[in-house]
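Provenance and format

Records in this collection were gathered into a single text stream. Each protein contributes a sequence line and a token line. The two records reproduced below are adjacent in the stream.
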Amino acid sequence: MTGGRRMVSVLGSTGSIGVNTLDVIARHPEHFGVFALAANSSVDAMLAQCLACAPRYAVMMEEAAAESLRRQLPATSPTEVLQGEAGLSHVAAAPEVDAVMAAIVGAAGLPSTLAAARAGKTLLLANKESLVMGGHLLMQAVRESGARLLPIDSEHNAIFQCMPVDGAATPSLKGVSKVLLTASGGPFRNWSLAQMRDATPDQACAHPNWTMGRKISVDSASLMNKGLEFIEACWIFDLAPDLVEVVVHPQSIIHSMVQYRDGSVLAQMGNPDMRTPIAYGLGWPDRLVSGVAPLDLVATARLDFEAPDELRFPCLRLAREAVAAGGTAMAVCNAANEIAVAAFLDRQIRFTDIPVVIESTLEQVSIVEPATLSVVEAADAEARDLASGFLADIQNRASAVHRT
């Protein structure tokens, strides 16, 4: 691998992407060092990571968690504990940092991702919500600062690998006619609406191919994850929405494809393991050992494809409609989804209520141009308030039915 040892800040280090990132980094101590780790409130996991990686900084979003971590770190530890959004933005933009793994789940990841982009860092983007909410702001920051954006979502990483890319990691649409964004279909691919109505959080989180956190697992089950990735693809690759086609591919072996004008289709394939795109992003333009077993095509035996059913999975349609509406509609869609998914995981609403909450919120919120981060954050807050109100309506109706 070319160049010297690179210092990495891992934001969302105790989550699935963060843990896999540290796994890849540990395989290449001569190439990478950990400058900072950041998490929300998982003190035990963060303590273990600090002892293993000896970062200069550890950031905890919750004040009580930060205090607990400070007390538990040994006096000889080189790690300084920071707290809150200011700490996140500091470790994302610090001059010692070469690359930032942006893997905080949800809207909470936008400010620090934007800080890394504005500081001109190599941005390993696993927080799709940053683009969904503030795509215009983030891509503008990348262009103006000279930051390098490398997508880590397996699908967008696959598209990146199949597209012409210049030395600054800027993809080109030269000769491209369409992008084929693959979706596994999730655990409910063959379920009826009646079955999904009674689905439990554990069932929704039992993804057939990937090991992920609970929020993204529910998004995968509803196909909202693919809707968010549809939006993300439009921003990263500067694609018109009609140039992105979603294709269900249950095996998750082909991670996405790029179709060219001459009839060629380039596909990136591999076992479903996030260490592959993480290693690709960390090492780009070189290839690193990731720890992932090579793909056995004979054992795989078959690759299936089908069109998504947007009647059973309306979240994909809602994401498309948010793109068409433009402005802050995408931020509103994301905020309402986060509220609805959290309520479903807390068993407050049914799985099939998730798109109802999202659509109701989109119908009520005024859409404006996302000129600044504060405008985006205001739209996000308004959408969350409205979505929470719709949750209460759903719960009240359910209680009334139960009483009768």
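Adjacent record:
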Amino acid sequence: MISQRPLLLLTSVSFTAFSLSGYAQTVPPIEAGKQTLIRTGTAEGTGGLVASAHRRATEAGLEMLELGGNAFDATVAVAATLTVVEPMNSNIFGGYGTLIIYASEQEEVLYLDNNGRFPVSANSDVFRQTDSRDVMHSARAVSTPGNLHGFEAMWQTHGSLPWATLWEPAAFHADEGVAVTAALARAITANWERFPDRARQIYGAGGEPFTEGDWLGQHELAASMRQVAEQGSEALYGGSIGEAIIEEIERGNGFLTMADLTAHQPEWFSPISINYREHQLITAGAPSNSFAALVTAGIMSRYHNTALGSNTIVYLHRLAEAAKHGFWTRLRYAGSPENNPPPFEILLSEDYWQQQVDQLDPARASTFQPPGRTLQEGADTTHFVVADRWGNVVSATITLGQAFGSTVFVEESGIWLNNSMAFSTYQPKGNPMDAMPGTRKHSSKTPMLIMKDGRPWVAIGTPGGHTIPQTVAQLSINLIDFDMNLQTAVDTDRIAFAEPNVLLVEEGLQETVSNQLNSLGHQVRSTTQIGLVHALQIEYDNNGDPIRFIGAADRRGVGVALGLDVAVGR
């Protein structure tokens, strides 16, 4: 438990130097050495809630709420701390992401696109070469990182605590160290041969990669966090951190330049939505492929799912076919909206959904006919959710692309850089999903808010690459049609369609169901895990004020949900 402690809170929301040394007083002591991380699933609170993939990140967000900060303050603290505790999955400096936020004062849902843009000098010809796999893990795969600029813009508009305060937990843990989780250990080992020497010194010992429970300190990263706490995002988008990044890119003959960094601007857009029963599903528009989740859910809304029952053979067959079509729409309309704007007025219409239902064969799986495109995708991503006592909500999905991104490591800053250019479609040259210089990049990230009576009811999201929209759609159906509580909805076994014509089925589903799906023509493949969801739910009083928060961390990981009680503390 983080103890209550006084902080010197600055009244000015400006970039003011702030001491991080006092944060050590707030963290329970853990001796260095072999450690095991324990997962905490369901949580409740009356004053706010945070759920993320790691206890330290969740605690960092809750610390901001305890200090009187709001969900937007807590979001920055969570994202920064995730950079420390699961560095393979995201990076607040070198990564990118997608956020859906609800600002209670304005009663408005907004879509914050932190995905950045392709470098102006990008040349996708290098990805059409026979040895392009190596290019995907190189400086040439790095695009403009958008996370830091976006988080700062959100804080400037909606935050309340001093900027420097938000970096205290992350900087402390980077300096003092954290226990290596099993997932991090696997990622380090899998990428060890690509790591530069300095990264091997940080993420290993004696020439060998760290294993689960080893102690990871990241002092250069801590210094970068202190610099940004004092200087703001300018340190990256034009300052010395940015200069170090560009020097590393130039050594690897990459495309990103200082001009790309200085030209970058956070981008806010209106989200997209559909009505589902008495609820509204809201998520990100283009260039995110989130619309595939709405298409899948929309098709399923034409059925009486409650009568079918959760994960029955009839329900799963229909869900698989709906997800298959949602997958098709992603391939057909993914890409930069400048080149390939999705026809949302068609895709999100009831007439369109009914057309897909009318074509369903209740006794046979359809054969997937791809629209002439494929997508390269990475599943190494993280999702977290935050809500505060005033009803502000953030649903955030952030990433480096693949584990450790490009594996380009900026040694003096301790920063990993993304490989988002690796996830375009390069054949044929010039197709709408090619890496067009200076354009916005597509992604599968699908942070979602489910609204009820005009207020946020549930915030959900997940990592998982191409399975993300399908998982989010299934969660929505579990909650609305099957009236599951939040933790059950998150933990229930899932399916996902994958190319070329495969139906992934989690091992927990009964073997008889898999056999029946095979008999219907689905090419079933068992898998241990689809997605890693973090979610929260809000209950309101008769005046529309939040009175209870419920959080859920997926049983598939070691994530933690923690609630804040405004009366007695946590």
